[in-house]
Amino acid sequence: MTAAWHVVVPVKPAAVGKSRLGGSGRAALAEAIARDTVEAACRAARVCEVVVVTADGAWADDPASRVRVVRETAPAGLGPAIRAGLAAVAGDRPRAVLLGDLPALRPADLDAALGLAEAVPLGLVPDAEGTGSTLVTARTGAPLEPAFGPGSATRHRAAGFVELEIAATSTLRRDVDTLAQLDAAAALGLGPRTAALRPGRSSRPVRAP
User: Fold this and answer.
1) Residues 18, 89, 144: CA angle, nearest 5 degrees
2) Which CATH class is domain 5-196?
3) One Pfam family, short name please (predicted)?
4) pLDDT for 158-189, tens place per residue?
5) Strand 95-98 with 133-138, pairing
6) Which burial class, exposed, middle or buried, applies to 8 when counting CB atoms under 10 A from its CB (0-12, 13-18, 19+)?
């Protein structure tokens, strides 16, 4: 298994992230979700670099864990953040964009998707509801122009992205915007930071290889 993929993760500043979660601890929970997602991506064997794009000063480069930060001067939105991250990947290399709200993500699930992505120019993993997208990929030689946002799975398919054969129960599909979705992620097993801050409940953190 070769660590060849450069994975871009856009991250909103915690102060404005995950507004639909509500509550006084929302900002800390938003940061925990993003950090658990990035940590899981860093532990995936097929990933050689995780490019975090953010205006949040709490994030910093961490060569030991393969994290590189592309700093925004101010939040510019999901599309501009993704474009900035992709532009920071030098040369024509396998690239992917992973949303930063997958607190149950297991490295093995990301590895499985990236392995399948090696067989198609452009790959797609829809979210658990089937309407959004959590991961898009482009192997060497394929231009990557993501179209995230509401209804993005349909737009990605229309643009030529091939849906990867990922199980409906994969942790890679379970993004979190609401407390109900956080509960669904908890049933899969949350990362340690998110588990510690999950409102009013406890959950065993994920410690997958």
Assistant:
1) 75
2) alpha beta
3) NTP_transf_3
4) 999 999 999 999 999 999 999 999 999 999 99
5) antiparallel
6) buried
